[in-house]
Amino acid sequence: MVSYAMNRIGDYGIIGDCHSLALVGRDGSIDWVCFPRFDSPSVFGRALGTDAGHFKLAPAQAFHTVRRTYLPSTNVLATTFVTAEGDLEITDCMPVAPFDAERPTAVSNHSSVLRRVRCMGGRVTAEVDLCPRFEYGIVQPRVTSSSSLAVAVVGGPDAMWVRASRPLTTDGTHIMASWPLTVGDEAWIEAEWTPATGQSPHGGAGDQRLDMARRLEDTVAFWEAWLARCSYVGDHERSVHRSALVLKALTYAPTGAVVAAGTTSLPEWLGGQRNWDYRFTWIRDATLTLASLALLGYLGEAAAFKGWLERTGAGRPEDLQIMYRVTGERLLPEIELLHLEGHRASAPVRIGNGAAGQVQLDSLGQLLDAGYLFGRAGGELTVDNASFLRRVADLTVLAWQRPDQGIWEIRDEPRHFVHSKLNCWMALDRAVRLAEDGKLDGDVDVWRRERDAVASWLRSEGSPNGWYIQAAGHPLADAAVLLVPASGFLPPAHPSVLATIDVVQRDLSDGVHVHRYRSPDGLPGEEGAFLLCSFWLLDALIHAGRLDEAEVLLDRLLSLSNDVGLYAEMVDPATGEHLGNIPQAFTHMAVVTSCSAMSAARRGQLPPADTAFSFIEAALDRRMPAFES
Fold it and tell me: Which of 113, 122, 146, 312 shows a CA-CA span of 20 to 30 A to 434?
């Protein structure tokens, strides 16, 4: 039997089908996948608990080298193990074509992971150890063989159908195989989920090897065709393309929602308690999601995400949550799974997210900014869109003076966060602009008056020492205030902005790594440096005209991805080890927007640094012809 050593967060590659995704370790073990949706219970959950299920395919012999890459222009992962006796290549995917990932109504009742193993030289024995554990490892299912090439797995509401092109065996809990291969030999295996009431999706008739080969070919073709539509023109194209593919993999095709990450409870610090479920969609991500997709030329995906925003925001703005499930459900009760020890003993493991009930005022600004940018780029706001945005603006008038939990979702007493007030200013500013463009009706005089009142608060309470602080009464550095110029509130070269950059670099930076803050937040323990904050610093430097400094930072940030170009949420500054949930959508969105900004800056295409402008609006202006098409 193959041996195990826990994969680290940075050891994982991903495969996905635009409904869910799987983590594939450097040791050939699939340690995380939820069927049929990102937020469904896991079937393989070894990333969070040793007995929570896995699907390992690797050489029986010891291997001294592992090389990994994605097939060009795809989310199909190829891993090569080099042993003393020969080389073994494993190609992994989650088949996409059968679910028509571009069709909104294609809710899947059949999701799978498909693996091909080939001997590329010499003689190697490939070993399989497949151990499904439904409902986050709670259910040990019944495993029965229907033939030497097919095994049925049933437990509670779930079923899994495992088929292979070479013989399988089972001991009633594990599915196993040992396949001696010589150069040119190959074998196939697929584990497909269905509801327990369903039937085997393939029946068993015909040549299973040819069927699986076709499904792999279809999946490769899908990803190649999708990336061929990317219209990004600029530097660091390889990194941007990988981030584009990651963002598509994090998109739930039936609704257009983009999840914050594909995992839950991967720790922000090893052994710590800061372990959260990110398999949901945050309203605050609206502007950056729409902008990054539009910058890449994916207007269909941007429109689908806008549609998700419209549906989840239907009703009263007062009832808005900061996050929702990918299908729009509001209930996200936070539960601790005490039977799981957590990734590398980092407990608790949580599902759901209690922050859904917090007050976070930045969502108001993100909604109105997204609506403004959509209209600015030629999109039509419907009557219902305009009515909703008007009510969001009116709500901002009433709410902006309240304290909240802020962008970092602190589990402490609410504060008057500068970032939250900045977004309230942005909400009212965008409402005024929409009204001036004839796209929004409302009490513009009130919006303008309150916008100016928020601006006065930001100048006095927000920057009492000449630089922007975390919150009123908390004169501490916070990376979120790097977004002051990005919103268009102040020019990038304004003395207060430059002073804020200097304070963030002094108080929050460990070289390339930038921490969110270093203040109490109601939780024990440490956390890593937040990668998105490093990109915020990068953007502030770019737009302030400090390009040489910014270029060095960008090169170092791009080097922080793992061997297949993925970013987690955080990094341990001392070791470079990835921390937090992976892959992190925010980080990959930032790769897109920051690379675009650097390319534009080097070509002299940015607005002057002494003028106030929205970074995202400026980026979309550069892409306006493509957006209008």
Answer: 312
Nearest 5°: phi and psi at 79? -125, 130
pLDDT, tens digit (0-9, with 9 covering 90-100), for 289-311: 888 988 899 988 888 888 898 88
Could you please state the CATH topology (level 3) that the domain comprising 9-199 is classified under.
Answer: Beta-galactosidase; Chain A, domain 5 (2.70.98)
Question: Tokens 């992962």, residue?
Answer: 77
pLDDT tens digits along 390-423:
999 999 999 999 999 999 999 999 999 999 999 9
Please enumerate, as own/partner, the contacts of 224-232 that have beta carbons within 8 Å and a separation of 24 or more.
224/72, 224/73, 224/74, 227/73, 227/74, 228/73, 229/297, 229/298, 230/296, 230/297, 230/298, 231/296, 231/297, 231/623, 231/626, 232/295, 232/296, 232/297, 232/592, 232/596
10 Å Cβ neighbour count for 213? 16
Structure tokens at 378: 């030629």
Per-position b or e across 126-163, b if 16+ CB within 10 A of its CB:
bbbbbbbbbbbbebebebebeeebbbbbbbeebbbbbb
| 290, 306 Cβ separation under 8 angstroms | yes
DSSP for 165-183 reads SS--EE-SS-EEEEEEEET
Tokens encoding 500: 């804020």
Structure confidence by residue, pLDDT tens digits, 473-527: 999 999 999 999 999 999 999 999 999 999 999 999 998 999 999 999 999 999 9
User: d(Cα 122, Cα 530) in Å, to the nearest integer?
Assistant: 44
Residues near 108 by Cβ (< 8 Å), separated by ≥ 6? 17, 19, 36, 99
CA atoms of 618 and 606, how far apart (whole Å): 7
- Can you name the residues that pair with 570 across neighbouring β-strands? 530, 579
Contacts of 14 (CB under 8 A, 6+ apart): 21, 22, 23, 24, 75, 77, 246, 249, 262, 566, 582, 583
Distance (Å, whole) CA 24 – CA 369: 37
Report domain extents, the chain. Answer: 9-199, 237-628
What is the CATH number assigned to the segment(s) 237-628? Answer: 1.50.10.10
How far is Cα 295 from Cα 597, in angstroms, rounded to an integer? 11
